[in-house]
Amino acid sequence: MIKLYLKQAWQLLKQSRLFTTIYIVGVGLTITMVMTIAIIGYIKIGNIYPELNRDRTMVVRYLMDKSLDNGSTYGSGLSYKAVNEFFYNLETPESVTAITYADDTRMFVELEDKRLIAVSTKGTDAFFWNVFSFSFLDGRPYSVEEWKSAIRQVVINESLSKKVFGTVEAAGKNIIINFSEYKVCGVVKDASFSTPVSYAQVWFPYTCFSNYQTSFGEVEMLGAMEVYILLKNKNDAAALYDEVQERFHRYNTTLEDRMVDLVGQPELYRKNIFRVISNIEPVWTDLIYTGLLFLLLLLLVPAINLSGMISSRMEKRIAEFGIRKAFGASQKTLLNQILWENFLLTCLGGIAGLCFSWILIIAGKRWIINLFDPWSEAIPQDVSMQLMPEMLINPTIFMLTFCICMLLNLFSAIFPAWRALKRDIVDSLYDKN
Amino acid sequence: MLKQLLKQIWIQRKVNGWILLELIIVSVVMWYIIMPVFVICYNRGIPSGFDYKNVYQIELGELPSESFRYDEKEAELENHLANFYRIVERIKQLPEVELVAFSGNNSHPYGQSFSAAGYTKDTLSVQLRKLFFIPGDYFKVFGFHSFYGNTDLDDIEINDNSIFITRDAEKLLFGEELAIGKTITSSGEHTIVGVVDYVKMAKSGQPTPLCFHPVRLPVEILIFIKTKEGTSGKKFINYFREEMIGKLRIGNLYIKDIISGAEMEKEAEYTNDVTNELRIRITVALFFLFNIILGMIGTFWIRSESRRAEVGLRMAMGSTRLQIRKQFLLEGFLLTTLAIVVSCFILINSIRINGVEIDQATEFADWYLVNNIPLLFITVMALIYSIILIAMTIGVWFPATAASKVSPIEALREE
Known about the structure:
The complex is a heterodimer. By secondary structure, chain A is of the alpha+beta class.
């Protein structure tokens, strides 16, 4: 039956070229808008190399040190002391890593001809390489022992290795960073700047930074580190939350007039990116309502458009429906047919729209990916925002496109179709069009 | 004529209803989308009060203590300062460089952070943003100019307690009186020695009341240079990046980075969320407009087909093709006007109840159009009205042309 509907729809589609074109362009535009946003969202929270376990990663990026006397507060990242005493020895998770932005943000690598190039860097521990799934092209990561004893070794990425040494086989060679000598212990496959938590061109054991133990605040819990916790499995989130909260709770009872507040963390990675201000937990109901309202508007305006067009087409086909009804077709059958016919058109528009949103994202990758980030920054000139195919082409994206098409189709076709079918048979047959 | 058109619209209400509904929704939504864009564009048109043309900010770095090139002796304050002056001297010697100035850390226009304090005159207290500078060519490099006459601000004699304030700060503190020579207090007394013209600290914002404090080294400072008129900015910055950054090193100090005024502006607009906001809002606005065009084409095309008989009859009765086209356009025009009137009614009620939130505006500066809400509303709605009219015309034009090409004989025979 559906096959017959689609066949008929195809014929209709060929008959009225103009209607088809306007309809497909209208749908395509809508799908382009919605899917561009959806793909950006996917790049932000999907499991993407090297952050392949984002769905079971939990985050603590911020602590507040509060005085119970006068209510004054300090807020910042975590200190080494906090990470060491409260996080490295957690029992629930598979692995825990701390990343620091301390030391210098803009560092220089000296090339052979004495030229200097600026690189982006991160200080990590050895567990970083468990939590994030980098693939090593050469060498290996620094081990726990090496990290603990602050051996001056670094991991660099593929493109930097090519720039400095002309090859990716750079393990064991020396590199001069910020006027100090380091040994390269591994080279990893390039990642994209769109995975900002793990992105760097050079990774150091943070023990090499002279100031890694620096802390501030009265209880020495505040510093410049962020903690990422890899769970054994997704369902452990609540257990981990309880374990961490319990530890801090116990610690707070030993303090007299202060408390250290986790402001709702640890939380899942996908929740954390919605924090606009680090010490305020987003109001989820508000966020969801605004999001839905925005989506509704994006769908509603084109849907009204399409409804108008469908309803005038229905007028023309009133006679046809009259005959069908006279021969015993039920309302439901006819409604089904109209919806299927339209669905064909909507899907064509959907495919066009999805393709167009791919083009848009590829062409505008340097600014589009960060379009919705609060306090975003222009991407540094020397950094590549490369996209990988799996960011754009994956089952989630296809399913989402399909669902949005269904929704749009339902919004736009159901009301005009219902109104046309409600007409009396005699009336419909009499209609001279 | 008008009555006839309204009748036509009413008769065709089934099809017109859809497009009218769409027009109303879009013009209501457009207010919320376009208004902030309008405010930003308006603010950008306000003179900035300084000039970053040919201006560059230079950042110095210090070798890490673990570096094999680190020299402990050079880290002593005396040597450190001497090295600093030597580096500045080297920069000054570049043929392209005209002037060098020192600004206190994070207190220049487009800077990423700022400090402010309350300043009092008698009992009146006003919040002013603080800018720190080392006397020299500071005002010349930044292009800040005096509000009163052609005084060269750098030539005014000052001591540690002197300050400069901007014109809006003067207005807030002294009304229409002249502030020069008077004293204000904020952790100590300060004598005002000059009044600077309005200064915008952000490109898309409005002027902020400021005060300028002279300071002495050693404090954390940033180096700003102004290159000579006619220097190619691109060439200079490339040369500087190749030859100076990381290479010019004296003691433990080295040149770490250079940013041009234009780059600072771009960076600041990003971090203030203006760039992304403009991009999102303009895209969404274009999306809705495009939908209106599509909707108009769709509605009027279908209409022109079902109205072939009417058009044929009209032409038989002596209407010219131009008149037919005009009629279609007038119908579209009436629909748009109707939609705008309805949406104005909805919006005025919504604004009455919820108020309007305008970022990037300062309340006291009521001499700017965007700070006056009724005026802002009228301007923006007029803008929206004309934009939608343009979209409507594009959308109606093709079907109207097609309809006017109908042969009256065929159309009447079909009937």
